[in-house]
Design brief:
2 domains, Nucleotidyltransferase, domain 5, five-stranded mixed β-sheet, 9 helices, ROK family protein, alpha/beta, 13 strands, ROK, about 20% strand, about 325 residues, ATPase_NBD
C-alpha cells in the first residue's frame, strides 16, 4: 500500500458514498448523496460531483494520489464505462473520464462493486486467509467478485464473479438485464419485498415494504415472509453452488443490506446449499457473513486506488488519467 491518501467512491442504486482513506484502509473523511437512479445521466453524475466536491474540500485532499471507484455493474474497466442495471440513464457512461476531470486529472481506477467488496473482505474481512473465495453483495442488486489462487480475479472488464445475473430459474421473471430468472431477480432486497407483498404480506402502518421489514416479519413467524426469504436463499445457493463447481471456491462471503437479516437468510441458505453443492469437491464449501459492513465498497475501492497510486497493476484494475 502507498503512503499517500486515496479517494474512494462506492456507487449503487440507492446511494453514492465517498471517502478519503489512508494506507491502512481507514476511512478518514466521508461524504454521501442519494442516487437519483430514475434521473437522467447528468443528474446521477451531479450527485457524484457533489460527493467529490465535498471530499475535495477537506484539508487532507492535497495528499490524495488516486481515485478508486466501485460501481454497480456491469462495468467495463478497460473502457472506463459503467452501465448499472439499477441506474437506467447510465449505459456506457464514461465515468472514469468524467470523474477524472472532476478530480483534476488524478489517476482513476474502476472496479465493479462486487469486486470492490471482495478486495475488502479478502484483505481485511471474512475471506482473509482464503485462496479461493466468492464474495457477494446482496442489496438493491446482487453483485459478486472472486479470489482465485490467492489473487483478486476481476476479469478483462472487471465483471468476473457477477453472480447476480446467473440464471437459476429458466422460466422465471424477466430481469432488467434482459435475461430470465436471474439470482438478482429472486434474491435482491427489493425483490424479496416484492415477492412478500405479492404473496399477501403487508408492512406495519407507516412502515415501508422493505427486505428488512420482511425479515422482521419472518422472525415473528409470518409464513409469507419466511417463504420469500427461503426462495431468495434457494436462488443464492444455486448460484453459489454453480460457481463453486466451476472454480472450486471454498468459502462464500455474503454482505450487503440483505445479509443483515441474519439467520432468516443464512439458515435456509445453508440448507439449500447442501442440496445444490453435492459433488465431493464442493461439499466443504462454507458460507459466512461479511465482516466489513457498509464500508466494504469504499474500502475495496480504496485498496484498488492505493495499488494504482503505488504503481501496481492487477487484472482489470487499470488506471486512466482524465484526458
Amino acid at each position: 500500500m502507498t503512503d499517500h491518501l486515496v479517494a474512494a467512491l462506492d456507487i449503487g442504486g440507492t446511494k453514492i458514498a465517498g471517502a478519503l482513506a489512508d494506507d491502512g484502509g481507514s476511512l478518514l473523511v466521508r461524504a454521501q448523496r442519494p442516487t437519483p437512479a430514475e434521473g437522467d445521466a447528468e443528474s446521477v453524475m451531479g450527485a457524484v460531483d457533489a460527493v467529490l466536491t465535498e471530499l475535495a474540500s477537506s484539508p487532507l485532499w492535497p495528499g490524495v494520489g488516486a481515485l478508486g471507484i466501485g460501481s454497480a455493474g456491469p462495468v467495463d474497466a478497460a473502457a472506463g464505462t459503467v452501465s448499472p442495471v439499477n441506474v437506467p440513464a447510465w449505459r456506457g457512461f464514461p465515468l472514469v473520464e468524467r470523474a477524472g476531470a472532476a478530480v483534476g486529472g488524478l489517476p482513476v481506477v474502476l472496479v465493479g462493486d462486487g469486486v470492490a467488496m471482495t478486495a475488502a473482505e479478502h484483505r481485511l474481512g471474512a475471506a482473509r486467509g482464503h485462496d479461493n473465495a466468492l464474495c457477494l453483495v446482496v442489496s438493491t442488486g446482487v453483485g459478486g467478485g472472486l479470489v482465485l489462487g490467492g489473487k483478486l480475479h476481476a476479469g478483462p472488464t472487471g465483471n468476473a464473479g457477477h453472480i447476480g445475473h446467473i440464471s437459476v430459474d429458466l422460466d422465471g421473471d424477466l430481469c432488467p438485464c434482459g435475461a430470465r430468472g436471474c439470482v438478482e431477480r429472486l434474491a435482491s432486497g427489493p425483490n424479496i419485498a416484492r415477492r412478500a407483498v405479492d404473496g399477501g404480506w403487508r408492512p406495519a402502518p407507516g412502515e415501508d415494504a422493505t427486505a428488512a421489514a420482511v425479515a422482521a416479519a419472518a422472525r415473528a413467524g409470518d409464513p409469507v415472509a419466511i417463504a420469500s426469504y427461503e426462495r431468495a436463499a434457494q436462488a443464492l445457493a444455486a448460484g453459489i453452488a454453480a460457481t463453486a463447481t466451476l472454480t472450486e471456491i471454498d468459502i462464500a462471503v455474503i454482505g450487503g443490506g440483505v445479509a443483515g437479516a441474519g439467520d432468516v437468510l443464512f439458515a435456509p441458505l445453508r440448507r439449500s446449499l447442501r442440496a445444490y453443492a453435492t459433488l465431493s469437491f464442493v461439499r466443504r464449501l462454507t458460507v459466512a457473513p461479511a465482516l466489513m459492513g457498509n464500508d466494504a465498497g469504499l474500502v475495496g475501492a480504496a485498496v484498488a486506488a492505493a495499488a494504482v497510486a503505488a504503481g501496481g497493476r492487477s487484472g482489470a484494475l487499470r488506471a486512466k488519467a482524465a484526458r
